[in-house]
From TrEMBL:
Classification via InterPro entries: Cyt_P450, Cyt_P450_B, Cyt_P450_CS, Cyt_P450_sf
Protein name: Cytochrome P450
Record has Metal-binding as a keyword: yes
Keywords: Heme, Iron, Metal-binding, Monooxygenase, Oxidoreductase
Protein family according to the UniProt entry: Belongs to the cytochrome P450 family.
Gene Ontology molecular function terms on file: heme binding; iron ion binding; monooxygenase activity; oxidoreductase activity, acting on paired donors, with incorporation or reduction of molecular oxygen
Length: 382
C-alpha cells in the first residue's frame, strides 16, 4: 500500500455522514490511507483535479474491481483509446443537442404526467413518488429499454450501485446486484431488434460495439443515470424548502434552477468518489504510491475544500461553483452530464415548483451514503 498517513473511520458513521471525517482528513492528512476501506483517499480539490487526468498512474482499468466483476468492463473501467472509442460510440445518444432536441420533450411529458397524478393527493414522499419515476422515465427513454417498469429501473440501479460500493463483501448485497444485472440483460435481449432511434442501445449497436461492451455500458448508464438524478432532484427540492429566501430569489429571477443544482451537487455530491488503481509507482507530494494500490478520488470532499469554498458546509446558491468537480475533471468526466442537467434544471425542478407553489416539508429527510449519497425520503405536502 502507499506510505500515506493512516486515518481510521467508523464505517457506520461515515455512511451516515462522511463530511466531518473528510474535513478532518483535509486538515490533518489530505492524502490518507483508510484501512476500513483498504484505499488511499485524495481529499483536496486540486490534488483530485490534477491527478485524475494522469491515467498512466491512476488507472480506471480495474479487471478485478467490483464494478467490472458485477457489471462487466464498461467504458468507465477503460483508459485511453479503448475508453474514447466507446465514449464516441455512445455520444450520439447523450450529446447536448440530442438531449435538447430529442430527450427533453420526453422528459417533460413524463414529468407532467407524474405531477398531474400527484396533485390530488396533497402529499407524498418526494423521493419515491416524484424524483424516482421522473428519473426512471428519462432513463428508460435514453437506454432504449422500453419494456422496463419505472420501479424496476430504480431498483436495479440501486442494487447495482450498492453492489459496486460493497467493499465489505456482504453476500445478500452481491446477490441483489447479480439479479439486477440479469434483469437488465433480459430487457436488452428483448430490444436488440427494435432499439429506439438515438437510444444508448441503438447507437452502440449501430457503431458495431461488441455485445459485452454494449451490455456493460447500458448497465453503466443505468447505474449513473437513475440514482444520481433521483437523489439530486429530491435533494435540491429539500435544500430550497429549507432555505426559502433562496427559493424566493429563484422565483424572482435573481438566480436560476441551474444555480441551485450547481450548488447542491457541490454541497452534497450524489457521486461521492471515483475509484482508481495505481498502474505504476509514483509520488504525489510526500506520498509514494505502489502499483496495485487502490485510490479513491473523493469528489464529495473536493466540493467542500476550504481552499476554494468559503463557508463550504453551507448551501448558498449565490456561490461561484465553477471550481467544483461533481462530475469529475478528467477524461472520465460524466458522459451523461448534459442529460442530468436538462432533466433536473429544465424539467423536474421548474415544473414541480410551478405546479405546486405552496410545496412544503412535513418531516425530516434522512440522508445516507458516502460513495453515492442522497436523501432516503423527503416528505412534502401542498
Amino acid at each position: 500500500m502507499s506510505n500515506a498517513p493512516v486515518s481510521h473511520i467508523d464505517p457506520v458513521a461515515f455512511n451516515s455522514d462522511p463530511y466531518p471525517a473528510l474535513a478532518q482528513m483535509r486538515r490533518e492528512a489530505p492524502i490518507t490511507f483508510v484501512p476500513e476501506l483498504n484505499a488511499t483517499l485524495l481529499t483536496h480539490r486540486d490534488d483530485i483535479h490534477r491527478e485524475e487526468k494522469r491515467i498512466e498512474v491512476f488507472s480506471s482499468r480495474q479487471p478485478d474491481g467490483l464494478m467490472t466483476q458485477l457489471m462487466g468492463e464498461n467504458m468507465m473501467r477503460k483508459d485511453g483509446a479503448a475508453h474514447m472509442s466507446e465514449r464516441r460510440a455512445l455520444f450520439p445518444a447523450l450529446s447536448p443537442r440530442t438531449v435538447a432536441e430529442h430527450w427533453q420533450p420526453m422528459f417533460e411529458a413524463a414529468a407532467r404526467e407524474i405531477i398531474e397524478k400527484l396533485k390530488p393527493k396533497g402529499q407524498c414522499d418526494l423521493v419515491t413518488d416524484y424524483a424516482m419515476p421522473v428519473s426512471a422515465a428519462a432513463l428508460i427513454a435514453i437506454t432504449g429499454l422500453e419494456g422496463m417498469e419505472r420501479a424496476d429501473m430504480d431498483r436495479v440501479s440501486q442494487h447495482m450501485i450498492d453492489g459496486c460500493a460493497n467493499y465489505a463483501g456482504d453476500g445478500p448485497t452481491e446477490a441483489r446486484c447479480h439479479a439486477a444485472t440479469a434483469l437488465i440483460d433480459t430487457h436488452i435481449d428483448r430490444m436488440l431488434d427494435c432499439a429506439p432511434a438515438k437510444s444508448a442501445l441503438a447507437v452502440q449497436l449501430d457503431a458495431g460495439l461488441p455485445m459485452d461492451s454494449v451490455r456493460a455500458n447500458i448497465k453503466l448508464v443505468i447505474s449513473g443515470g437513475q440514482n444520481e438524478p433521483r437523489d439530486a432532484i429530491a435533494g435540491v427540492v429539500w435544500a430550497l424548502l429549507n432555505h426559502p429566501a433562496q427559493l424566493a430569489a429563484i422565483r424572482a429571477g435573481r438566480y436560476s434552477w441551474q444555480d441551485a443544482f450547481g450548488e447542491y451537487v457541490r454541497w452534497i455530491s450524489p457521486i461521492g468518489m471515483s475509484p482508481r488503481i495505481v498502474a505504476t509507482s509514483d509520488t504525489v507530494g510526500d506520498v509514494t504510491f505502489k502499483a496495485g494500490d487502490r485510490v479513491f478520488f473523493m469528489f464529495s470532499s473536493a466540493g467542500r475544500d476550504e481552499a476554494h469554498f468559503e463557508a463550504a458546509d453551507q448551501f448558498d446558491i449565490s456561490r461561484d461553483t465553477s471550481r467544483a468537480i461533481p462530475f469529475g475533471a478528467g477524461p472520465h468526466f460524466c458522459a451523461g452530464a448534459a442529460a442530468s442537467r436538462a432533466l433536473i434544471t429544465q424539467v423536474a425542478l421548474p415544473l414541480l415548483f410551478n405546479a405546486l407553489p405552496d410545496l412544503h416539508l412535513t418531516g425530516d429527510a434522512p440522508f445516507a451514503g458516502w460513495a453515492f449519497r442522497g436523501p432516503l425520503s423527503v416528505p412534502v405536502a401542498w
